[in-house]
Amino acid sequence: MKYLPTISIFLLCFLFPSIIIGCKTISMLATPQEWSKNYTLADGVEANDPPVIDGDLNTMGKSRFPPESVESLQFPLSEALITLPERKSIHRIVIRSPNLQVFDIMARDESGGWEKIKEVKSNKKEVVDLRVLAITDGIRIRVRRTSDDAAERRKNTTRGGGMIWIQGNIRANADISEIELYGYADKTDEPSMNPKTDEAFDELLK
Fold it and tell me: What is the reported pTM?
């Protein structure tokens, strides 16, 4: 019986933090998430096609192919690239596009490399609203398929002499009216040192 107080203190020390964390999580889930202002509208933000971040839904930008891709048989994927003046905690990305179907979202890491943080394989919406987790100063949307690819392929290929002649890109650009990046409005909700836990929490907010 003399060990009972020690065991009770141990259980209290172990369970109390868990109870506090659980209560905070329940409270956060019960409260609608408030988002920061759209980071892409801040000063110093750049894009490889400026209309995708001009804040005007009536303008239409495009993903861009590398300049050499027209002459290359490899036909690399087109991309929309956004560069922020400083690293931000990104939890939500909104893409407004009438033809974007399959794409990857990449985030630039501290070393300047790129890490895939989201993969969308079958999009049918014109407004794509995604939850992500990245601390970065660069977001890249790599376009794998659009609804206009077949028309572009027919336009730039011909058949003759038993061969197929490729005269240009066989993939279409993604038409993008706007890309929006958001973090949490509440600074206490910035990512912790445990990204897997934060990612699971973001899934619950979807």
Answer: 0.73
